[in-house]
Amino acid sequence: MTKQLITIMCAVALIVSACVADLEPVSLPVVDYTSELRGMLSFDSTARRLLSGVYKRNEGTTRFGDRIAVAYDGQVVTMYTVRGVAFFTLRGGIANDSVKLVGVWRGVQGSETGIARLSIRPSEGGREIAEGKGNGLGLILRGEITTSSGSRESYVIEKVDATNLRQLDFEIIAHRGGGRNSERLGVSENSIPMVLLAGRLGATAVEVDIQRTRDGEPIIFHDPTFTARTVPSPYVIGDVDNYTLRQLKAVARLVNGETIPTLDEMLDVIIDSTELRLVWLDVKAPSVMDAILTSHARAVERARQRGRDVDILIGIPDDATFSAVRNSRLFGSLEIDPKTGTLPILCELGVDRVRDVNARVWAPRFTAGLQSTLVAEMKKEKRRCFVWTVDDQNFISDFVSNGEFDGILTNYPTLLAAMFYTSPKGR
Amino acid sequence: MKQLLVIWLVLLLSVRVTVKGAEGADTALVKPATEDEQHYIMAATAVDWWRGGLSAGVVFSVLPQPLTEYPIPAPMIELRGRFALPLNLAIYGRLGSNIATNIGQIGAMWTLNLPVVSLGGGLSGFITYGNITYIDGFNVVHERLTFYPMATASLRLEKVTLTARIEAEVLSYRRSRLGDAEGDNGNDRKNQDVIGYTRYDRQLTGGAITLSIEQPFWKNTHILLGVTFAYSRTPYQAWFLYNTFDDRLFSTEFFAGFIL
Fold first, then answer.
1. Regarding the domain delimited by A168-426, which CATH topology (the fold level of the hierarchy) does it fall under?
2. Global ipTM
């Protein structure tokens, strides 16, 4: 009897623990933008600038807190909130001196999502936007949002600060191209669709990870091995560098169905199709450093030809990568920035190593604290300082308010954008 | 609260009357603890005053996968104990450590013996102290106080006691600090470089179900074997992963020990 009981209990425990896997997927509601915005004129860059800024809540739902940052990414108007850690992606238009915005919102730390329908009356800023005048201060967005439970909540916010948030010299760096798979954004970490989404999440920069294939091709992938977390296929398992690029392109699909991009493919998309200002290449395969530096040089040239101001940095996370960079035959071909006299390198090691390799960026781990003295030293040498990877709201608040870093790497660019833009430093 | 007190007093009175009237009769509504049960720790069985047990063992946790991304085991050594007080009350507690995470728990419960089952209810406080400053680059200290109201039911078989315990998790206090140590990266850090936060929350952050078996093993030694299924926003063993998910996460904790 005893033995049976123990056996039954162990079996139940194993079954239950095996059954519980990841978080439930999140589906965004569908909006028919064509019918919602029929007959309206699209926003131009002036309208987007007038909409951009910091807003305060006047009436309605409190689920997004009292301060809201409004920015834009391409044609899309975006909103970021600290409370609820939500991002909005809104499309809109102008008709009869009124502005209409419609889109979806999503709380990225949970599964809350819904539709937002907002408008600006002619007397509350709509006319100003239609005529492209003023700075947008005092304009009022009013309307309603729906929630995951189907309820409707009114929402009225007013613009109280006219800073063009996208112009601020602070990098909101999204981890793994925008977010991890566990954020359930509907696109996979380190994928092309993820970097296309990153700007809407609030990012001004992205960090992507570089692994290698068996035939020496740098690819964008985080883990050294394939698991169900990243590539849910029974046929793609084991070490990443056991597969050739051709094999991976043929059979490996990320959790949301995308193919694994090469480094060249990723950099081309970032340059051609995003407004991201900086790319942090987190090298996890130093053995293909020559190929990485070749891709880097090619991308820098491509950006120059297209007039894109994007800083592509070679990340050095450890001693092996440090040696690989220094010993690469292409190290000498890295271009020195004429303004700062530094190389396009981001070094996570100590400051001596940063100087040794003349890195443009020093990036210590967040658990070392604010490190004010060293940050000041680095800035005096015209180097930038980023800190990684900060997700906790309390620590983000400390780094934003009390730190002197030039950027923060996070899995929640939405939260960082909302906190930075609505903080005194963000203005 | 008053109702709970009245219910408790009525139950207590009925138990005392029944025990007095039964005097060992097989028809008693309550069944005193056997000699084996006097040692058990997780069971709701009421035992003689000042009797109880202390187990030394190990815990093996599987941290929530969305937080860790990879299956990361978190073993810990622990002591669990329970000692009976008058009026069917008992104190119970737990101490555990894997160096990075250190825990201490102490609580009180009231128990009631019935012929086949025993029932109990109680409240405990649970302190977590996490420290990984000894790992280069992880200059982090964390403290946390959580309360666990619980209800327990035990099935009293001939030699074995099978116990199910259900607990709510109420987070009360958190404190985290970064950059405490000086000299990291060769830098003499100033006090203003230390960052951190203190929060008094008092929020329901989750709950847990624990199933356990206690039985004789060899001579006077008994064994304790169990599993806890926790569903929590703040799994204590994952404090250094800084959970940022609004969702409650599932984690499993297996434990085994020898009752000394």
1. TIM Barrel (3.20.20)
2. 0.81
